[in-house]
Design a protein that fits this description.
The complex is a heterodimer of chains A (about 110) and B (about 200). Chain A is α+β, with helices and mostly antiparallel strands and about 110 residues long. Chain A contains 6 helices and 3 strands. A 3-stranded antiparallel β-sheet of chain A has the order 1-3-2. In chain A, a hairpin with a 2-residue loop joins strand 2 (about 70-75) and strand 3 (about 80-85). In chain A, helix 1 (about 1-15) crosses helix 6 (about 90-110) and helix 3 (about 25-35) packs across helix 5 (about 55-65). The radius of gyration of chain A is 17 Å and the shape is elongated. Helices cover about 80% and strands about 0% of the residues of chain B. Chain B has 8 helices and no strands. Chain B has helices spanning about 5-15, 25-50, 55-65, 65-95, 105-130, 135-150, 155-175, 180-205. In chain B, helix 2 runs antiparallel to helix 8 and helix 6 packs parallel to helix 8. Classes of the chains: A alpha+beta (about 110), B mainly alpha (about 200). The interface between A and B is medium-sized, with 24 and 19 residues.
C-alpha cells in the first residue's frame, strides 16, 4: 500500500523513465567508474568493481552495444589489451539516471 | 526503482567515485614547462658562462651581482610554467567534460602546498645567507617533495617524477655542488619533457 502511494506520488511529481541499460548494478558501476576515470583497462575496471572476468565482459558488452561506452583494443607484446572509455551518450544518460535518483529521494522526503 | 534502490545505488556510486585518481594531466603542459626550464638554463649559462667553471667563491660573487637577472629568469620560468599548466588543465577538463575543481583535484592542490611553502621559506633563508649556489638543489628537492605528495592522489608517473627530482637533488646537494645549475636544467628541463611525453601517450593532452 505504501509502495503504491509512493509510485502514485512519483507519477504526479516526476514521471520516472529509468534507463534499463544502466539499471543493472554492475553496469551502473562500469559507467560511473568510466565517468570518473575517463579511460580504464579491463583489469583496472575489474579491480575497482571487484568483478569477475565473465561478469564484466557481459555487462560491458551490453553498454558498448547501446553506445554508452566504447572500447579500444591494442596488443601489448602478444597480449591483447582492452581499454574502456565513456561516450558522450553514456555520460548524458548517467546524468539523467542520477537526476532520476535525486527525484525519487526528494519525493520521499 | 524505489527509494531503497536509489539509496543503495547512491552508496555504490560513492564507493566507486572515492577510488578515483587524478588523471586530468596534460602532457603538452609538461613538455612546455620542460622547454621553459631549458630556456632558463640557456639564459643562465649565457649570463654566467665566463665564471662557469671557476671556484665557488668567484662564481657566487658574480652570481650575486647578477641576482636580479637570475631572479627574473627563474621567476618567469616558474610563473609561465604554472600559467601553462593551469590553462592546459582547464582546457583538457573542458574537452573531456569533467569539472576542473573536483574533490580529487583539490586534494592534488593541497598536497603540493607544503612542499612549495618549504621551497619558498628555504629560498628566502639561503638568499639571506648569500648561499645562492644551493638554491637549485633546494628547488629540486622541495619541488620533488610537492610532486610526489600530489602523486598520492594521482597516477604512478606523477609519483615517479617527484621521486626522480628528490633523488637527483642529492647529487648537487651532498656530493657535487658545482653541478647544481646543470642538475636543475636536466631535471626541470629534461624530466618534465620525458614526463610530458609519457603522459601525452598514456592520458592524452
Amino acid at each position: 500500500m505504501i509502495k503504491q502511494l509512493n509510485m502514485e506520488k512519483n507519477k504526479t511529481i516526476s514521471p520516472i523513465d529509468l534507463d534499463k541499460v544502466i539499471h543493472e548494478r554492475m553496469r551502473l558501476g562500469i559507467i560511473t567508474a568510466l565517468a570518473v576515470h575517463e579511460s580504464l583497462a579491463f583489469n583496472d575496471l575489474k579491480e575497482i568493481l571487484k568483478a569477475s572476468d565473465g561478469n564484466l565482459s557481459v555487462h560491458s558488452k551490453i553498454l558498448e552495444d547501446s553506445g554508452y561506452i566504447k572500447t579500444k583494443k591494442a596488443f601489448v607484446g602478444r597480449k591483447p589489451k582492452t581499454t574502456y572509455l565513456i561516450t558522450e551518450k553514456g555520460r548524458k544518460e548517467l546524468q539523467v539516471y542520477l537526476e532520476n535518483m535525486e527525484n525519487i529521494i526528494k519525493n520521499t522526503m | 526503482m524505489d527509494t531503497d534502490k536509489a539509496l543503495r545505488d547512491l552508496n555504490y556510486i560513492k564507493e566507486i567515485v572515492s577510488s578515483a585518481r587524478y588523471t586530468n594531466l596534460s602532457g603538452a603542459a609538461g613538455i612546455i614547462a620542460g622547454v621553459f626550464a631549458s630556456a632558463g638554463f640557456v639564459l643562465t649559462w649565457l649570463l654566467l658562462k665566463d665564471v662557469w667553471i671557476s671556484s665557488n667563491s668567484t662564481f657566487m660573487k658574480i652570481a650575486e651581482n647578477r641576482m636580479g637577472e637570475l631572479a627574473v629568469i627563474w621567476g618567469a620560468v616558474f610563473v609561465l610554467s604554472g600559467l601553462v599548466q593551469a590553462a592546459f588543465t582547464i582546457r583538457k577538463a573542458k574537452a573531456s567534460h569533467i569539472s576542473v575543481w573536483s574533490k580529487v583535484s583539490r586534494q592534488v592542490l593541497y598536497a603540493v602546498i607544503p612542499g612549495f611553502l618549504a621551497g619558498a621559506v628555504l629560498t628566502v633563508y639561503f638568499i639571506k645567507e648569500r648561499n645562492y649556489f644551493i638554491l637549485p638543489s633546494v628547488w629540486m628537492l622541495t619541488y620533488g617533495v610537492a610532486v610526489s605528495a600530489s602523486g598520492m592522489f594521482s597516477v604512478a608517473v606523477v609519483r615517479l617524477l617527484g621521486w626522480a627530482f628528490v633523488i637527483s637533488s642529492l647529487l648537487p646537494f651532498l656530493l657535487i655542488p658545482e653541478s647544481s645549475i646543470l642538475a636543475m636544467a636536466v631535471s626541470f628541463g629534461g624530466y618534465h619533457i620525458i614526463y610530458g611525453i609519457i603522459v601525452a601517450k598514456k592520458y592524452g593532452g
